[in-house]
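Example record

One chain of 342 residues, shown exactly as stored in the release files.
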Amino acid sequence: MGDILHAMPAVTALRQSHPQWFLGWAVEPRWEPLFRDAGGGMPLIDRMHLANAKGWARSPVSRQTFHEIRELRRELHTERYDVCVDLQGAVRSALLVRAAGAPRIVGEARPREPLARWLFQERIPTRGTHVIEQAIEVCNAITGDRLQPTLPLIPADPESEAWAESLLQIGKIGEAAGPVVLLSPGAGWGAKRWPPERYGQLAAKLDAAGCRVLVNAGPEEGAIAGAVLAAARAASAAEQSGVKAPEFSLSRLIAVTRRSSLVIAGDTGPLHLACALGKPVVGIFGPTEPKRNGPFGVPSRVLRHPESKRDHTRRAAPEAGLLTIAPDQVFAAAMELLQRGA
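Predicted structure tokens for this chain:
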């Protein structure tokens, strides 16, 4: 999700600058709510091509995988794209771009995965530090424009919007008048994940300070959310903790994020979603470089140990520098941003 959201500001700027152009996007089915509303409308793009890459990786030699890849390739060729650009910089995404058969295949000169560059016909050198800046540079090189990053056009799902409104009026959450703070303790791999027990201690502090605290958990992160709630109850001085972990879908996460005063997370999709929706964030970073893919364009505080090094090795244990960050530090950063926005 983070890679999509980092590409969206450039594509949104492209859409607004050239509304008559036909824009397509190949994306995994689970991220569809970032593009399509309940009525089928897509404010950002004209065509969405669903690429079940996660399913293909699980069954790489199955008949179903071959069929789906063949159908996607046929679908891409049918649209007869003039340019196909890879803004992710991975070998997998570069292969998909090549499969479209466009006369121009474009990517960054120094992509995230170096092997990907050999799949591009045009390699665009970039100077920006952040991946959002780099995506803008690639799009500008293609079109000759001088685009600037623009907040993405992310659709709203009416059912999820109503659910979020109802959620924020229930029980203690509704009775409290404080700001809504969304915690997202998950991450793509363990080395990026601040311990859930510390999120729980932080949640208890925010709850005691009068915040309405919600904990987001992805489809495979129920145990993480449970650990956060347990730690929050243990750390709470009140008889009952007001911290909640409702059942989220992506559409619901979008709706709640729109209503949040602050989002606290590591280097993970929900943090980048908050930035895309213009929300203040506190980022808790370890082995990934916040200057490259941290908060962008919104009020933010980033906590990272000075000795943490960039390392995308998918280790299970939290990175050592990440473990030096204490709940009190994150709480202080959160209160600073909340008071600034009051």
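Notes: The chain has a mean pLDDT of 92.
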